[in-house]
Amino acid sequence: MTEKIPYPLNFTVDGQPMSKKRNWVPMCGRGRPRIILTKAYKDWEKGVVDQLWVQRVQYQASMVGPFEPITEPVLVEFHFFMKGFREIDLSNLYQGPEDALEAAGILHNDKIIAGHDGSRRHPGVSNPHITITITPFDGDVGK
Description:
By secondary structure, this protein is α/β, with parallel strands linked by helices. Helices cover about 25% and strands about 30% of the residues.
């Protein structure tokens, strides 16, 4: 017997947030140029997925049945706590954690994210991290 997801779901990911958009580098291999993600970004993304996976397992331990990836539309609120005051577009910070939520098995597909209501950047902190809150989306989603 499966249990409903215990909304809201709250996750915290330690470490400096990174923009996926700013972490592509050109590479020439096998005679054709292409772009790939930097090693630093790949390492960061793996760390984010690992942290989310552990927290997903903790949620599952408190449930009666298995934690199935969410398939219904949701709102995801991100708070990016960042060292320094470098200007980064908030929208550029979403893609990495969204992909990690999917890779960690929390979301079936990041296309189900209907909005980012309340998301913010918080520059100049000494403890960089990301907080993520997932709630059900009650509005109408066009398909």
